[in-house]
Amino acid sequence: MSKTLYITIAIVIIIIAAIAVYYSQTAGRPQPSQPTSQPPPTTATATAQPTSTTVQQCPQLVILTRHPTAILNVTRTLFLSSDVAKRYGIKDLVFKNPPASQWEALIKQGGVDVAWGGGPTLFNVLYQDGFLLPLQGSEVKAALSQVPDTVAGMPLKLKGPDGSVYWVAWAISSFGITVNLDFLNKTGLPIPRDWSDLASFTFGKALLQGYPATSIGDISRSTSSTRMAEIILQAYGWDRGWRIITLTAANGKVWSSSEDARDAIIRGDSGAGWTIDFYGYIAQLQNPHTRYIIPPNTTVNGDPIAVVNATKCRQAAEAFVAWVITDGQRMVFDKSINRLPSNPNAFNTPEGQGRPDLKAVYQQLQGLHAMAFNDSLAMSYEQAIIYYFVATIVQEQGDLQNAWKALLQAYYSGKINATTAQRLAAELGAPLQFKVNGTTYVFTQEYAQSINSRIAKDAAFRDQMIAIWRDAARDKYLAVLNEINSLS
User: Does residue 255 sit in helix, strand or coil?
Assistant: First the structure.
């Protein structure tokens, strides 16, 4: 054979040998599995697994929230150790807690993934303004199926025209009155049963003894306090509602936060005040001489969680929402939190079985005939009443309380009769009459609705109206005080 033929045969032999070696090494290698087309069934608290092997990795989620530190700390600890966090590569939860009025601006700036807590009115506004994304992934849809649509006739989900869910409640809240029984006994006050009791001449007796009978949060800083003011306005009507709100503040103290208002009741500095239900439960745990009371004119809320349109981590954000309404529900039973879960399966967990007190309240709410609260109506004047409250009550509480004390003293000393006392009390609490550029207006519901959008967005107009209302309120309170002095 020629030398060339030998070389050719050698090359062929080498190629055949190489092929044989390759197949011998790969014959036993496992092949990648194909993703399943259906998610596995959910359990009482387990979150459904994603249906794709491609999982978005997001090192952190940024969450706008109105929740107190206790909820945020427990959430961070539980979630970051969860399989969900590991699956999506989430190493941190960044919580931001600005006033609700700043949420839309922060979402517009970008870098926000989730909105959580603050009540349905806030979230309905976010939805109407286009800031919420529909919850569409299979994982979150499986979790949504575990949460009822309503409780006590009130929605636990917001659905768009296409049937998509835009926010879902993670917890259920009622609104009521927390009382300190020792304070009431010390001052001789009865246990209040209704919102109007806190605005009564009877509760004013404690004020004359040097004790602030009532304790409420500034509605510009507390969304739960805002909701309770709205409940009162709808339950009693606009004019009587403002009288109750104003004289409740006159009977005690307005605090910068609802937490501070609650703590004053726990300590016994005040006798009674507006609280969301879980603040009442916390009070009862911290001081057995406190009690949470659900008045007849109240409503029930689902506290929302949603994914915002600024997110770049939609899969991970939806997974967080799904976790919060399934596995994460056990956080509500922590004694520093004391919320009612939106997912009834949470009561089947060891944590849930250890809180029969909360289960009893949950069952009570199932049969509650809540007032027919009109959320759209509340939204139509919410911003206006917030700044009106700031101007006429927060900034002028000193003059308001001086006039109210003088009225109480004149009445209880017999210097004025009950008819005159009631007339003057009605004047103190009546919606203001005021002038803008020479034109006289009254703060009616219709007027509040007419300026609601502008006062929310136009800072110069807002400052102008606060100043006008503050001055008009001061003039009214001083006029009532002068009339009382002239009569007594």
Answer: strand
Say if residue 298 is exposed, middle or buried (CB neighbours under 10 Å; 0-12, 13-18, 19+). Answer: buried
Rounded to whole angstroms, how far apart are CA atoms 233 and 262?
22
CB proximity list for 262: less than 8 A, separation 6 or greater: 178, 215, 273, 275, 279, 282, 283
Q: Rounded distance, CA 410 to CA 403, Å?
A: 11
The answer to whether the beta carbons of residues 325 and 211 sit under 8 Å apart is no
Residue 238: which CATH number? Answer: 3.40.190.10
Domain match, 64 and 122 both? yes
User: Residue 252 — φ and ψ, nearest 5°?
Assistant: -160, -125
What is the greatest pairwise CA distance in the chain?
Answer: 138
Backbone phi, then psi, for 383, in 5-degree steps? -65, -40
* CA separation for the pair 235, 80 (Å, rounded): 43
Q: Which domain holds residue 351?
A: 60-173+301-366
| CA pair distance 304, 157, nearest whole angstrom | 8
Tokens 């001061």 identify what position?
474
Convert the pLDDT of each residue in 323-375 to its tens digit.
Answer: 999 999 999 999 989 999 999 999 999 999 999 989 988 998 887 878 889 98
